[in-house]
Amino acid sequence: VHISLLCYCLTALCLVEGSEVTQTPTILWELKDSDAQMNCSHTKGATYTQMYWYRQLPGEGMKQVVYTSSYSDPEYGDFSKDKYPTVKAVAESGSFTVKKLETGDSGMYFCAVSQHSDTDNKYSCTQTPVFQQDVT
User: What range does the record give for the signal peptide (predicted)?
Assistant: First the structure.
């Protein structure tokens, strides 16, 4: 069995009070064509309804994939809701999925939460590295 791994790790620099925001799993390894689901939760209370998901691919800057809140539809901008579905039913938690993993999906994925929808004023964020693995 030959296994080739595409790996990328990065230390997040955006943790303000990271113990109040939890992203699971902390590292995610999945096979090509499978789905990678991440969960984010916080203990800041019900007024922190905004959640943002970012991705950072190797050699690139961080890009916002989607903005979600517990009271409105997700906003994707340049990204596809079919590729990156989200669930956010309550203020304190949400999930983000990368569907049908491809080689180019390996990277770091970040969750950030905010009390307001001002994208320059995140309270805290955390991260999950995702690795797509080919088994041949």
Answer: 1-18
pLDDT digits (tens, 9 = 90+) for 80-130: 999 999 999 999 999 999 999 998 999 999 999 988 654 444 445 556 666
pTM of the model: 0.75
Are 128 and 23 contacting, i.e. CB atoms less than 8 angstroms apart?
yes
Mean pLDDT for all residues in the chain: 78
Q: How far apart are the first and last CA of the chain?
A: 6
Q: How far apart are CA 90 and CA 9, in angstroms?
A: 30
d(CA 20, CA 27): 19
Neighbours of 133 (CB within 10 A): 16
How many other β-carbons are positioned within 10 Å of the β-carbon of residue 9?
11
CB within 8 Å of 123: residues ≥ 6 apart? 16, 17, 21, 44, 48, 112, 113, 114, 115
Average pLDDT over residues 34-51: 91
Report helix, strand or coil for 105. helix
